[in-house]
TrEMBL record:
Organism lineage: Eukaryota, Fungi, Fungi incertae sedis, Zoopagomycota, Kickxellomycotina
Coiled coil: none
Protein name (record): DUF7137 domain-containing protein
Domain DUF7137: 76-203
Protein's UniProt keywords contain Transmembrane: yes
Species: Coemansia interrupta
Comp. bias intervals (Low complexity): 1-22
Pfam families: DUF7137
Residue spans crossing the bilayer: 225-244
Length: 245
């Protein structure tokens, strides 16, 4: 009987141990299902987002133009006609056409799409309606930025109701229409306004701004000169005969 009881106790203990082992395995499986947060689909999505953010940092979002806007310099307009290096203060004839030419230096990465030109009367002339205004009249407004030359008709283009007079100290502005005549910080690669001083006068010799007399005809002028020369020679010859007689 004792032997049999001892055997029963061992069997019961083995059964209880097996049950405990099964419970432990179930708990372990449950714990394993809750612990791995790094494999959660939502976490995977955040990881992909983080990687995308990292890629964005590696690829600069700032374009070349935006960067150049911060580090580049404004550029210049240079007058080519008339040449300020040759004639620092040009003189324009009142009542004639004035040819104005210009160019941009090579670093002008953003040339004007439209150009405007305006003029200002001399200080103290009493002709400016508004002394504080940059310009008193427009010469050209929003012409194509591809142009490099413009002809100003001083007869038809000027301040309304105010005639030009002989004087020194007139001013002219050539500028990017999008920036204006007084914007000297237009941004990198854009042009700053060109401002120069000129004089105006009335021609007493019938000359144009090209230095050629109005209505000049070289053929007829040469013929007239020849006729005049023979007239003078004939008069001298006749005078000499009169003296001899």
């Amino acid at each position: 009987m004792a032997t049999q009881s001892s055997s029963s106790r061992r069997t019961s203990a083995q059964t209880e141990e097996a049950t405990n082992n099964d419970n432990t395995d179930e708990n372990t499986e449950d714990d394993q299902g809750e612990l791995p947060n790094d494999t959660n689909p939502a976490d995977d999505e955040n990881s992909e987002t983080d990687q995308n953010d990292d890629n964005d940092d590696d690829e600069p979002t700032q374009s070349f133009d935006e960067s150049y806007e911060e580090t580049g310099l404004p550029q210049l307009i240079t007058l080519t006609t008339p040449d300020l290096n040759t004639v620092p203060t040009p003189m324009f004839v009142i009542g004639e056409d004035v040819v104005i030419g210009w160019k941009y230096n090579k670093d002008t990465l953003r040339p004007p799409s439209k150009v405007s030109i305006c003029g200002k009367f001399p200080k103290g002339s009493g002709k400016s309606i508004n002394q504080a205004a940059t310009c008193d009249w427009d010469i050209a407004v929003n012409i194509s930025g591809t142009l490099r030359k413009y002809t100003w008709d001083t007869i038809t283009v000027g301040a309304p109701g105010i005639a030009f007079s002989e004087d020194t100290g007139y001013s002219m502005y050539i500028y990017d229409s999008d920036s204006g005549p007084t914007n000297y910080t237009p941004g990198a690669g854009r042009v700053i306004p060109l401002q120069f001083v000129f004089n105006m006068y009335n021609s007493r010799y019938g000359l144009t701004n090209n230095g050629v007399p109005v209505g000049y005809n070289p053929v007829s002028s040469a013929t007239n000169a020849a006729v005049h020369l023979w007239t003078v020679v004939g008069a001298i010859f006749l005078g000499a005969i009169g003296v001899l007689m």
